Fold these 2 entries.
Entry 1:
Amino acid sequence: MTEYTNILVEQRGRVGLVTLNRPEALNALDKATMDQLVAAVTAMDADPGVGAVVITGSSKAFAAGADIKEMASQGYMDMYAADWFRGWEDFTRLRIPVIAAVSGFALGGGCELAMMCDFIIAGDNAKFGQPEINLGVLPGMGGSQRLTRAVGKAKAMDMILTGRFIGAEEAERSGLVSRVVPAENVVEEALKAAEVIASKSKPVAMLAKEAVNAAFETGLAQGVLFERRIFHSLFASEDQKEGMAAFTEKRQPEFTHR
Ligand code: CAA
């Protein structure tokens, strides 16, 4: 079993909660943190007792980026040979729904990690930014692609080229975050949303996530066909029978595959 030194891992009912825990470095995402986070959430993905995951940081920082001190002295061949950041691809392949609960700084890799989650709930003190340009680099964990898809070219260019931070309100207005809540409630609100998701059929939630993600990978006609085929396939599941029977019988559904 992996020993977790940089994250705290808990389970609340059917919800997994992972808290980044490197306060001395504002939760900078070094390789150990990436490996531990990916291992913890991969285990939750496979655990039938977990239906959704929340990832959070501290009240001051969700994460202040990739670990600059760990990268500073690396050469090109080191970065290439290690395929630096490749581990994050495993995070993006998770099938379980993942919510980012962001308080404080979500910068560089921190903003990119939040964007790798399925949606972001932000505290009103949240600050998002891609300040890599100030370090003589550019985003390296998918920021130039995911931020552009989330907020459009104008704002992505503005943030990535100037390195300026945006607050929670601007982030919500731009479509980067799904809701803004008082900072002190951000984890609680994310846990509540995760509980709602975890009360549904887990395979159906996973398929719904896959269908939304297809919007980013395919054209409209292909994406709509993908969605319709999944929709048809669900009529082979007990959970569809139960969900629709419960509606007709005016009761709450009891899903089998949770
Ligand atoms: N990597 C390593 N250490 C970091 C860090 C990071 N990304 N961010 C903060 N820290 C460390 C600081 O070095 C400091 O450590 P020491 O006490 O040992 O000096 C500690 O965390 C506290 O930070 P500050 O004293 O700087 O705190 P502050 O409140 O004055 O400022 C901040 C907060 C504005 C977030 C500032 O820390 C900051 O600018 N951090 C870097 C942000 C950044 O550039 N992120 C992008 C990283 S590169 C990247 O992420 C690449 C990619 O695309 C994946």
Note: The mean pLDDT is 97.
Entry 2:
Amino acid sequence: EKAQIGVTGLAVMGRNLARNLARHGHVVAVHNRTPHRTRELVEEYGHEGTFLPAQSAEEFVASLERPRRIVIMVQAGPATDAVIDELTPLLNPGDLIVDGGNAHFADTRRREEALRKRWLHFVGAGISGGEEGALHGPAIMPGGAPEAYESLGPLLEGIAAQVDGEPCCTHVGPDGAGHFVKMVHNGIEYADMQLIAEAYDLLRRADGLAPAEIGAVFRGWNDGRLGSYLIEITAEVLGHVDAATGEPFVDVVQDRAGQKGTGRWTVQSALDLGVPVTGIAEAVFARSLSGDAELRAAAAGLPGPLGTGRRASGSLVADVEQALYASKIVAYAQGFHQMQAASAEYGWKIDPGAMARIWRGGCIIRARFLDRIRAAYAGAPELPSLLVDDYFLEAVRGAQESWRRVVATAAELGIPVPGFASALAYYDGLRAPRLPAALIQAQRDFFGAHTYRRVDRDGSFHVAWGGDRRETLC
Ligand code: NBP
């Protein structure tokens, strides 16, 4: 008996993905660099399906039906290259390698090109949902050649999360498109989490609500348009009491946020593409600021209010809900803009509505809201920004007064809301009839003769700033 698919790399993610495949009736070849993980998988979960354990890469490859389908689930980076290098000499033209790790899309593009020259398919697939998702149904974002998806798609769609009878998996686009979209997904996740944290901070400090009360507010929001996995788990966290101290759990956790790097990658890519993703960038920087303990200690005595100016239990709740929703719309609009810009840059032809569809289940940012995004792109695939879609335009129109009040209140009380404030600034920047960029162009012409364009005539102009200040057409 041969296996339909193989998984190499059997730490939490690989093991659970292999189990998910086996539970769906596939014969799964399993392999890991150190064999004890392979042994443990078969001992503990062998009854869940048919696993073909392999001790060596040779045995692993030999146990697969052809064309072979191999999923790599190892640490992203050099480990992935090491596994690819070990496998490729053992494979035949037409065989297919999937990298399900969190690879940088540039690495995926490089690997896809190298393997294509050897007549092998390489599919960089973003897999979201953590270990639980891998086991019970993740969101899967596969890139690579369309022919590769023909062979792989039905398998992946079968084990992905399902929403309204549709799988949370689709072919994203060629080469690195899948990993790119997964990266932006993670960036949006950073922005979403930051906005939720700011909402909590405001309700606690400006409104005097206790964590458990805020948890209850979030539970209420979860039944409305903000309904999402992140809001749901936040409500649970805020309701949790530390067993050792009896304090709210959130108060015994050190206030320094960690990051593994996908948020940073998203911002780096956005800088290269020239797309403002201020919501994601502020979220990444807010985590960096929180993590700089030394700097924070040095700055602790700086003058200013400390956010305890007002105690009007509950008066801000409705405003904060509006601000959160509007800021979330901006963060998603920016993330989708980035995907569309990358799609144009690399020729990926990403369907943004399909991305919203496959993020509705399995992944960390799954939310009711994504159905709205899907609908927006279904009605207008070339939509320049989610903000100009009718539904979102009306939502932001309705949220606006509250949103401005929340940002102003936060500024007055000294409560940092970089997510809310930068989202509002982006919104106001986009809709401004005229921006001070005109002054910047004039400054650039002054010190660097960078020239400028006039509102009333074609051509590039320069003023002789150091001399007679006459304007010349360049
Ligand atoms: P890890 O990222 O912790 O990697 C451990 C695995 O990599 C083990 O199987 C290990 O083998 C293998 N490995 C390493 Br390390 N170096 C190797 C090498 N040179 N050659 C062969 N194998 C090597 O595992 P994970 O947490 O299960 O994550 C797997 C992938 O999924 C990663 O890319 C990660 O970023 C991604 N991930 C995604 C999510 C998500 O939510 N989507 C969550 C967590 C992880 P060994 O047993 O012999 O040491």
Note: Residues 9-14, 32-34, 37, 73-76, 79, 82-83, 101-102, 127-130 surround NBP (CB under 6 Å).
